[in-house]
UniProtKB/TrEMBL annotation:
Keywords: Hydrolase. Residues 210-293 form the Peptidase M20 dimerisation domain. SUPFAM superfamilies: Zn-dependent exopeptidases. This is Aminoacyl-histidine dipeptidase. CDD domains: M20_pepD (cd03890). It comes from the Bacteria. Pfam families: M20_dimer, Peptidase_M20.
Length: 487
């Protein structure tokens, strides 16, 4: 299936991407891809380093005539988001990604593609392996765990790199040059609850929400995509208010940086009201479908009678929980007042688990303004603490402040205009990039971010545009030739 990918142009890059995608590389499970990358560098006879947290650095001298240019750091992350459709039989721990060509796009069969950030990794590998691409001295930095905490970037110590310019290859629109990004903070709410024996007069039902697009909780948070956890809570709240619905279990969403696509709940309702409950739930769902029909045309609801669950959530806790879930903000909190069209602050209610006497709600809050991030996270904490939850803040990482006087920005902007007869879109993004973190230990490094067009990142709809990869590759080659001389 991946053989057709290896015939695409630029062929060396797509071959490296196919090689990489044969290696399982989930966040926090990067041992195999670290070994793969170290072997790649060592087999080329290049200086290859694994730092104490697992980042891999491969250094390549400048090609002839480029020795006086500024040393560059080319950086991408090794890990990828693992998401699959519910009906896809696939084991991310043992299988490589199965890719196919769909017109001008490369997709994966029912799973995430790994183009985020695998195309960046493949780009750097191609340049490291090449014998005919002019370039200055390169320090290739392959970080780990970008998708679930950026711990690789956080653990990279000062002094390992000497480059004066960093090219981060993790932007997802080929006409965009990134100069800034949002910081983030995980907000996790937990509490214990007493399980009650389900009364004999109640019957069991399973409620399933699926068919949502999902997507990147930073780049796509403003698009009006449905959040399975919020939709499920809306149905549960209505069932509780009108039919005495009681919750036994909930499982919704998975990764902190992915908009949740699916949610499942096991509930109990009064036997003498079950027909009315089913009819009301389906009617409310049709209303939700109508609200989301433009962005979520494949949204589905399944309500099925099952064996009555043995236990249900304590009534008082359930009432507080469903109200807190209703009140907790999901989506855009504030748009930037300084950069038109940029989301400043947002929250993604990413994961909800209710089972065995425990409640877990995981959120990822993003903001390019620290005070606004604190304001929103305090609001979330207050919402969940009012219902008895303990709330923890963790995984705090800084944003990347734009430097509009950047020398490499000027070089790349002029090159883009020469190549395409139009100006690039110079912008900050609402995603989390590693530049802000890396800048803490390398404050003098001039940083920029760019990449090919990738759609649907963090979801099984992820796809990379073939023509865009060719455009991006040509841009990379021109940038390497135009790196300024050392000061």
């Amino acid at each position: 299936m991946n053989s057709e990918i290896r015939q695409l142009q630029p062929q060396q890059l797509w071959n490296k991407f196919a090689d990489l995608n044969a290696v399982p590389r989930a966040s926090k499970k990067e041992a195999r891809v670290i070994a793969f990358m170290k072997a790649f560098g060592e087999n080329l006879g290049l200086e290859t380093i694994e730092d104490e947290v697992g980042n891999v650095i491969i250094k390549k001298p400048a090609t002839s005539g480029m020795e006086n240019r500024t040393t560059i750091v080319m950086q991408s992350h090794l890990d990828m988001v693992h998401q699959k459709n519910k009906d896809t039989d696939f084991d991310f721990d043992t299988q490589g990604i199965e890719m196919y060509v769909d017109g001008d796009w490369v997709r994966a069969k029912g799973t995430t593609l790994g183009a985020d950030n695998g195309l960046g990794v493949a780009t750097i590998m191609t340049i490291l392996e090449s014998n005919d691409i002019p370039h200055p001295a390169i320090e290739a930095l392959f970080t780990i765990d970008e998708e679930t905490g950026m711990t690789g970037a956080q653990g990279l110590k000062g002094g390992l790199l000497s480059g004066g310019i960093l090219l981060n290859l993790d932007t997802e629109e080929d006409d965009e040059i990134g100069v800034g990004c949002a910081g983030g903070l995980d907000v996790t709410a937990r509490r214990m609850y007493n399980e009650e024996e389900t009364p004999e007069f109640k019957v069991g039902y399973a409620i399933t929400i699926n068919g949502l697009q999902g997507g990147h909780s930073g780049m796509q948070i403003h698009e009006g995509l449905g959040n399975a956890n919020k939709i499920m809570n809306r149905l549960l709240y209505d069932g509780f208010e009108n039919f005495g619905l009681r919750i036994s279990e909930i499982k919704g969403g998975s990764l902190r940086n992915a908009i949740p696509r699916e949610s499942e709940a096991i509930v109990a309702v009064d036997a003498n009201r079950e027909e009315a409950f089913v009819a009301e739930t389906k009617a409310l769902f049709q209303t939700i479908q109508a609200e989301l029909k433009t962005m979520e045309p494949d949204l589905e609801l399944h309500v099925s009678k099952i064996e009555t669950p043995q236990t249900i959530m304590d009534l008082g806790v359930q009432e507080g929980f469903t109200r807190a879930m209703y009140a907790a903000l999901n989506g855009v909190y504030r748009m930037s007042a300084d950069i038109p069209g940029l989301v400043e602050t947002s929250n993604n209610i990413a994961k909800v688990v209710v089972k065995d006497g425990q409640i877990y709600v995981g959120c990822l809050t993003r903001s390019s303004v620290e005070s606004s991030k604190i304001d929103l996270t305090n609001g979330l904490r207050a919402t969940f603490e009012l219902t008895g939850c303990e709330v923890e803040f963790s995984g705090d990482y800084p944003g990347w402040t734009p430097n509009m006087d950047s020398a490499i920005l000027k070089v790349m902007t002029e090159l883009y205009e020469q190549l395409h007869n139009e100006k690039p879109h110079v912008a900050a993004c609402h995603a989390g990039l590693e530049c802000g973190i890396l800048g803490q230990n390398y404050p003098k490094m001039d940083m920029i971010s760019f990449g090919p067009t990738i759609k649907g990142a963090h979801s099984p709809d992820e796809r990379a545009q073939i023509s865009s990869v060719q455009k991006y590759w040509n841009f990379v080659l021109e940038i390497l030739k135009a790196i300024p001389v050392k000061e």
